[in-house]
Amino acid sequence: MDSGNNISGHKRSRGSITATPTTTTTTTSTTRSATSSNGRGKRKGEKNNNNNNSRDNHDVELENSIKEILNKTQRPHNSIRELVKQLVTIVRVSSVNRKKTLGFLINQIKKSLAIQQQQHHQQRQSAKSTITPIEGFYTFISLFIAKDYELYENDSFLSILVKVLAKISNSQHYYIRFNTCRFLFMIINQFTRSDSIPLNDDIVQDILQILLVRVKDNKPIVRNISVQSLSRLQDNDEQQQDVAFNSLLQSLLNDELDTVRENIIKVICFKKPFLPQLLSRTNDNSTRVREKTQMVIERELGKGTFDNDAQSWLTIIQYGLKDRNHQLQKKYQTMLCSHIKTNHQSRISSFLSMFSVDQLVENEKTFKSLLLMLFENGLLPSIIATATATTSVTTTPDIDFKRIVQEKQQLAPHDVLMWKVYVSKFSSKLNKDNNNSSDSNNNNNNTLEQKLPDSLELLEYIKSSNDKYTSQNFISIFKCYPSTIINNYIVELQNVLVDLNQDIKLKLIILKLLKSYSKKDTEYFYDLFFKTFQDLRENEIGFEEMSFTNITTKLHCLEMIREIIDDQSPITDDNDINTLFEFIVGCITHQSELVREKALVCFGLLLTYYYFDNERDTLKQFQNPLNVLEFVIKNDRDQVKLAAVKTGFDIIAFRLKEFDDSFLGNFSFSFLNLLIESLHTHPPFEVLYFEGISKLFKQGILLEQGIFDHLIKYYFTPSDIEASIASKQILTCFFVIFPQQSTTSINLFYKSFKSVIQHFLYKEPKNVQKKLFPRIIDFYLEHLKPKSEKRKETCEIFINQIFIDFLEAIIVFHKCIYDKETNCNTTTNLNSLTITTDNDENNNNNNNRKIVNILLGEKSNIYFLTLLFSRFELYPYLNIGKIRCLIQILKQINPKVESKLKNIYETSNRLIGKIQDYRDYSENEKIELNQELDQLCLKPDTIEAVQQTINQPDYIIISDDDDDDNTENNNDDDEVQIKLEPIDESDQEQEQDEVMMDVEENIFHMEEDQSQQSQQSQEQYTIPKKDENNNGSPKSQCRIM
User: Fold this and answer.
1) pLDDT above 80 for 693
2) Pick from 424, 507, 422: which is nearest to 462 by CA?
3) Angle 536-541-546 (CA atoms, 0-180°, nearest 5)?
4) Which residues contact 1007 (CB under 8 A, 6 or more apart)?
5) InterPro entries from the entry (predicted)?
6) What is the distance between the alpha carbons of residues 385 and 349, in angstroms, rounded to a whole number?
């Protein structure tokens, strides 16, 4: 290295940091002036000069030798030791050499510590065979320090260097402080080796003073390296007086940085007096700290550190088994089970015996959780194992309850607790044969009552606190003794159901159990329920509607109604059903918002299971459910409105598959129309609407083309409203799955393309959003890519047809605009655009160019054609005939336009192959091309039909169109029309209006008079009547136009 280089962080770029020390400026000795004028004085002066020059040369040689050695520290690890030997040899030559060498090294160390390294941890992860320059330098110096300490213990280089480092470690620059501590860490490592001599106390104290300050540094990176250094100075034999250990302990308890606490846990050496500090980290905020703590605990378990330490085990159980991280929780479970199996021979009683009675009582829930976990992992209590000697420990034994009850008083407290938990957990599996026989034998009932332990009395669990554990106990006992409980405790159960002070969760558990064990006698259950229901409602008598008692009563009643309604064991009495209807509809108008929400849920369930039952004709006269939902949607608060929307969708999703009920069909589509009307006035409905509609499509319940088209149009309509963004996220997930879900879905998806393209072309004909169309085409091509060989042929056909549909839509769109602006019909002119020969080319060229310019001459038209080819050029199965027609049109464009379409033309050539000049075509080929060209033009009657569609409003048509398999017949004569007045006629609604057409025949046209459209705007619904001649249900098709 050149002597002119400097190792300095501010003079060296980050990418070129080196650790090789540089030379210092050689001090020039002063030449003694010759004072004597005689020859002897002159010779003496010359001698002195020679000595000084010799010393200078020696200093230079020494410095160069050291520099040469330091320059080689970038070599592999194994060569650094050889360099250390060379430097030791130089030092041992003389004390002068040693002094100069140490001074030179200190100078280089200072400079290296001033280097600001970027991402030091990445440098440490370099190749294993070599080390980075700065690491090589520190490794070399630390090895030299260790060797020097062996030779000069009392006057070692380390003792000098530590004092220098003590000053440097107080630098204002954090990277200097960090490098200093890291350097100390490498030095300490050399003296913790088994073959090294120990450091004297003075040096250790000096190093400790540096690290004790830096372990509280304001920079985390400095604190971390200080922790690692301190860990090497711990005295495992005298931890009480160990300064390094105590400092680490304080940092563990107080440092706010997770990584610092994590590093301390990894390196600190714990002994029994300090276990509480370690175990306190089992409840640390950082998951990584808790993970390291678990690893240390598991390591200490193998050393016997926690043997018979009840308080330590209690902490581990309290926090470890309830850890917020599921994986860490499983590790604690595995560790505990393994410890009990290994150290206690799988005897849970032996493990529990270390805990006092007070600990068991105060932490009963904690020990119950522990026992349940042990049981689930295959460990059984010893009392169970000894109950029947012939029973395998791995199975649930058949316990002799009578014997255990008699001996219970002689058991230790921990055995009693263990037995209680075990019985409550596995009681459903015990005495199964006796339980089955008890249903038909009263004597067996008496036996069961004798076997029911005193400590598990039923009412004790019913009337005690309603926590999760209590509920599980009650469920297990009920399943074990259903007949005993129903026969002897039914009055107590009814009192619990009626009592407003009891938790509703416990009430629902009781109802569910009673219903499940009364399947053979549902009439008895419903008699019991409605009697309880009436008693419960008596609680609200005399209280105002918004009183706590009134609201609580309503909520309990509604929750209980929700629990009992299902289709497995329906209510058979019409009077009971009407009672529920009256109560629920009354709750829908209650002043409490929460009551109204709960009532709507029950209202939907009741409608789902009973209202549309064809056998219940009398119920259909009760009340129109649509009126109820409409009342809520238009008048209630937002949260209740949303609940009503969800209820409507739940009804449709559950029952729309059975479309033979005309009233249900009427309700379903009337509800959807009601919801669409409300979207403009209540944007939050959007999210629920699109979520509900997309689910109906995915489930195959709703397959209406018009509604599906509307989803895609909405998806591509720009909007910054928060509800719209959320709705489009729902639709994004829907479109990922639905298009190729089935044959029906892929047809729905393809058929929507033409409608969507025309919608955005005609929405603003004079200001078409050109950038939107690439997104639309990419969207369709992406979702029509075949995901399986089964769909490949169908997808290719649809992609080909999309190409044609897009081309035709553009040409027709521009022709319609031309007709509108010129007030003439260009059908004849378009049909006259033919393939000509050389003789008549000039005659027709001007006429053809005029027509072509109408269609293709504008920049916007060029954009659409470019879009067409850029999106479809990779598909070789396109209709070549149609493309030829387009090529022939392009070849007749004027040179200026043709130059802009050069890329399109070249793309076409690559796609089709070599295109023949039209002069080389045969007459038959020309006729064929002209016929294909004619297909791009519209017939006059179709144009007139388009013009007649101007000013048509948005509407939904639900008709009996043919389905995909053509299994149904249209029946337009049986259509029933229902018209609703629009809610809003504002400009925002006009922007939402869409002009739709039949996918097979009709086309779009632009608007002529927006004010006239606003006056004529209305919602039109066409709902089919049931075809009596058809056994199946008609498939409906819905178009949103």
Assistant:
1) no
2) 507
3) 100
4) 762, 765, 950, 951, 995, 1013
5) ARM-like (IPR011989), ARM-type_fold (IPR016024), CND3 (IPR027165), Cnd3_C (IPR025977)
6) 11
Report the distance separating Cα 976 and Cα 971, nearest Å: 11
Quickly tell me which residue has 């309503």 as its tokens. 554
**Calpha distance 468→490 (Å, rounded):** 22
Is 691 in contact with 648 (CB distance < 8 Å)?
Answer: no
pLDDT at 39: 47
**Domain layout of the chain by residue ranges:** 741-1041
User: What does the pLDDT average to over 647-673?
Assistant: 56
pLDDT value of position 959 = 31
- C-alpha 629/C-alpha 603 separation (Å) is 10
Where is 160: in which H helix or E strand?
Answer: helix 157-168
Q: Please state, in angstroms and rounded to a whole number, the distance separating the CA atoms of residues 835 and 913.
A: 20
Helices (H), 699-721: 705-716
Asked if residue 294 has pLDDT above 70, the reply is yes
Residue 785 to residue 779: CA distance in whole angstroms: 10
Neighbours of 1013 (CB within 10 A): 19
pLDDT at 896 over 50: no
Position 116, amino acid: Q
Within 10 angstroms of residue 749's Cβ, the number of other Cβ atoms is 20
Q: Residue 168 has which token pair? A: 């440097």
CA 247-248-249 angle, 5° bins: 90
DSSP code per residue over 418-478: HHHHHHHHHGGGTTHHHHHHHTT-HHHHHHHHHHS-GGG-HHHHHHS---HHHHHHHHHHH
Q: Is 144 helix (H, G, I), strand (E, B) or coil?
A: helix
Task: Tally the residues of the chain.
Answer: 1041
As given in the structure block, the two tokens for residue 834 are: 């033919």
For residue 820, CA distances in Å to 9, 677, 849, 1002 come to 76, 33, 20, 18
Rounded average pLDDT over 352-371: 83
The backbone region for 308, taken as left when phi is positive above 0, alpha when psi lies in -120 to 50, beta otherwise, is left
Span 423-437, pLDDT tens digits: 666 554 444 433 443
pLDDT in tens, 206-221: 888 888 888 888 888 8
Which pair of structure tokens corresponds to residue 181?
């501590």
Helix (H, G, I), strand (E, B) or coil at 88: helix
**DSSP one-letter string for 357-390:** HHHHHHTHHHHHHHHHHHHHTT---HHHHHH-TT
Q: Which two tokens stand for residue 332?
A: 């604690």
Q: Determine phi and psi for 609, rounding to 5 degrees.
A: -95, -20
The region that residue 462 occupies, defined by phi over 0 for left and psi between -120 and 50 for alpha, beta otherwise, is alpha
Q: Which amino acid makes up residue 287?
A: T
- Token couple for 617: 């004709």
Residue 1, helix vs strand vs coil: coil
What is the pLDDT at residue 628?
65
Confidence (pLDDT) at 133: 67
Answer for the pair 771, 723: CB distance below 8 angstroms, yes or no.
no
Share above pLDDT 90 across residues of the chain, in percent, rounded to a whole number? 0
For residue 496, what are its two tokens? 């619990």
| 226 contacts 181 by C-beta, under 8 angstroms | yes
**C-alpha to C-alpha distance for 165 and 61, rounded to whole angstroms:** 28
Edge-to-edge strands, sheet with 956-959: 976-980, 1019-1023, 956-959, 1037-1040
Q: Which of helix, strand or coil describes residue 1022?
A: strand
Is the model more confident about 548 or about 22? 548
Rg (CA), the chain: 45
Q: Has residue 614 got a pLDDT over 50?
A: no
DSSP letters for 409-424: GGS-HHHHHHHHHHHH
Show the tokens assigned to 296. 């240390």
| Whether this model's pTM surpasses 0.70 | no
- Beta strands at 976-980 and 1037-1040: parallel, antiparallel or unpaired: unpaired
- How far apart, in whole angstroms, are the C-alpha atoms of residue 1035 and residue 1038? 10
Residues facing residue 1020 across a β-bridge: 979
User: What DSSP assignment string belongs to 89-115?
Assistant: HHHHH-HHHHHHHHHHHHHHHHHHHT-
